[in-house]
Amino acid sequence: MRKYYQAALAVIAVISLVSLLIYRHEYNRLRYVLEVFNYFGKPGPRRDANCTSFNPMFTMFNAKFDEPIPSWQRLEDDLYIYSAYSINNKEIRAIGLGTINSVSNMQCLVFFENESKPILGSSKFIPIGNAVVTSLGENSRYGGYHFICTYTSNETPTGITFVTKSNKYLNYAPIFPIKVQPRSLSHSRIGVCVMQSSMKPTQSADMIGFISFHALIGMDNFVVYDSGISNEFNSKLKEMANDLTSFWKFTYTVVPWNFPFTEIDQNVIREIVETDCLYRTYNNVAYAIVLSWNEYVVLKYHHAMIDLMADFKQTKLLADRYKLKTATFCTQQADNKKYANSTLIVLKKTKSERRNVNILEDHSIYIHKPHVTLQNSHIYTKEIRKDLVAVNQYKYCDSYKSSREVEDFTILRFAQDMQNSSILRKYLGLYNVLDIDIK
Predict the structure, then answer these.
(1) Where are the bilayer-spanning segments (predicted)?
(2) pLDDT value of residue 136
(3) Buried/exposed 232-262: b ≥16 CB within 10 Å, e otherwise
């Protein structure tokens, strides 16, 4: 009888061992799948890879970020209008620049499809942000403004014009096309509006590095405010973005930025770009951010920005916009030895300046919820800890001292993905830009 008990125990032991091995195998498979989801993002953000994916569903997303086609148009010597949008019923909002004296006496006229003449609306203005510049003269204070025009017609507006006391002739007033934006949010994407950095000119290698890096982390809907980018670069990026047979999926939209002044404070310009960006992406993306070509959003733990936003939502860390802290990387510093031969500046420059808490940042960078920010008069802002995400700024430092630098290797966690980026390799390989080495 004992032999039977021992045999039974042996069989049970074997079965238990086999079951344990099967369980361990399935557990590892599940763990791998979860790691893949975590790495590639959930849902939506596309991680880069050197393979081809035929995904016609991507063609469904066409937000037409280039509408309306903007242009700075002069109303008076110190008053200009850039673009106009409709995000609320019976209301049009235009974006402009001027002095307080010039914006005080404006009237708006709204054009409709079935009306032969424009209809007079009710006009008011709201300052954009807090930045004001006095560099054009002691009595001149230039700033950005929302110009809000309300009307009573139930028809859809097609255009708007403004007249002032000194410019009462309607025949000579420019007419601005109106983009009627969706009334409800339909996408969870992230929009990146890109403005010219102070480091001019921006090289094509730096711009494609910027595009490929941010697409890597799911920030892949680019609206570029163009003030001098070569036609060749824009054409190639548009061609790549429209290639439905490629693995990468990003949008690349160019809008003109013929800003009328050269001496306006950069913070005023940035606030105006940011405002147009919010209107332009309204209800077409869930989040929007304005960056210069030399600014990189660096995630410290997550692999996709949308995952960080989802975590904020799950942990009730809600806000109308999130303020990101910045770190400055001086371009005069010695190259990182491992990546000294790379042309990607973010891999070569890995020492940031030790920030003095008493020195204010040049400007603030926010991740907005456009559908919330533009509708609320009081915006709730949450500052994000630097150990979650930060913005790396790569620029020439006037008072550079290597003794003030500290090592910051955070972005190197993306080094292999950056070097293997199919966007970067396709651009450099296909178009052979200066035969750039991307090691």
Answers:
(1) 6-23
(2) 45
(3) ebbebbeebbeeeebbbbbbbbbbebebeee
Here the tokens at position 393 are: 């700024």
Measured CA angle at 206 (ends 200, 208), to 5 deg: 130
Q: Is there a single domain that holds both residue 259 and residue 293?
A: yes
Strand locations in 155-286, DSSP E? 157-164, 176-180, 190-195, 221-226, 251-256
Closest Cα to residue 154, out of 109, 114, 95? 114
163 and 220 both lie in a single domain: no
Distance CA 246, CA 208 (A): 17
Q: What is the pLDDT of residue 63?
A: 77
Structural domain contains residue 66: no
Count, in order, helices (H) and strands (E) of the chain. Answer: 10, 21
37, 66, 308, 314, 381 from 323: Cα distances, Å: 27, 27, 14, 19, 7
Q: Could you say which of 180, 208, 228 is where a domain stops?
A: 180
DSSP conformation class of 54: -
Please give the tally of structural domains in the chain.
2
- The answer to whether position 12 is within a domain reads no
For residue 129, what are the domain limits? 73-180
Pairing status of strand 176-180 against strand 79-88: parallel
Phi-psi region of 283 (alpha: psi -120 to 50; beta: other; left: phi over 0): left
Radius of gyration of the chain (CA): 26
**What is the maximal distance between C-alpha atoms in the chain?**
114
Q: What is the pLDDT of residue 359?
A: 53
Q: At residue 59, what is the residue type?
A: T
Question: What is the predicted pLDDT for the residue at 5?
Answer: 67
pTM for this structure? 0.83
